Amino acid sequence: MEVNPLSEYLVSGVKLTKHFESRRSPIEFLTGRRPPPIRAVDGVNIEIQRGEILALVGESGSGKTTLGRLLLLLEKPTSGEVWFDGQRIDNVGSRTLRAYRRRMQMIYQDPYGSLNPKLRVSEIVSEPLRVNGIEVKKDRLAEYLAVSGLRPPEKFLDRYPHELSGGQRQRVAIARAMILEPEFVVADEPVSMLDVSLRSEILGVIKRFNQMLKTSFLLITHDLAVAAQVSSRIMVMYLGRVVEEGDTLGVLRRPKHPYTQTLLSVVPRLGGSLPKTLPKGEIPSAKNIPSGCRFHTRCAYALPVCSTDEPELRLVDGSHVSCHFAEQILSGSTKQSTS
User: Per the CB 3.0–4.6 Å rule, which of 30, 80, 87, 198 could disulfide with 194?
Assistant: First the structure.
């Protein structure tokens, strides 16, 4: 098994790519042509430190969930490498991979569809223990339900999912994911289907487990306000690529990529006004990615070079950003396009 020289990272992905085959149209089927693949993740490098919460932010269709599934090897990469705790794991056999499975978990977006409606809460939360041959103790179940915010836990152990609210179901899902005390968890939009009043509480549960167990989290979200509440570092994805990465507060206070500015502009502010950086149109198809900078078709600052040359991810004022004019945008010396 290969050993990763960057062993200070718990999880890392190197040039990760995931392309999906597109369904043929009737004309393509008749002519024998194959449509271009869907380039969901297109050469991403990602590192997650031990005990940190990294937020992965972007619109629907940016490749966030696919990247999270690649790191858990729920999807096999088209190319690239996945490393966990200093070992490369994307090329190991199923028996070796199973030993890593209990150290990695996922919290799903839908608290209604992720729980088996035929099982009681006690059975749902204890299922990972049974699958891994670990003794199920009622005190342990009660402890993890309590940490998840279901108090008193004895009140919930014998309930079925349909007897719980959406917030309570998501707390059960979190307790189930954390009962094995995993080292790495991918939380895929864990609060997007909940009432605004509950989101802060659920994020607090994730933060609590992060501090209690030193678990590393990849928090996938489209909401920068969610990322700001719990993450120490942030990555912004657009059309399968990372466009900005850095310290969460630094990125949110001084966003350097026009797309990050766009995401930040729709975060509600009391007494504030929206910057004039809102994008034109919708996110392009991952089957037909624009040439040059992937964001240039929607960017308010785009110049001719943006449509021909794809910018590299480079260090600008403490953050990594892939924009030809990041310094000028940051200083306010670049004018917006009027086209």
Answer: 198
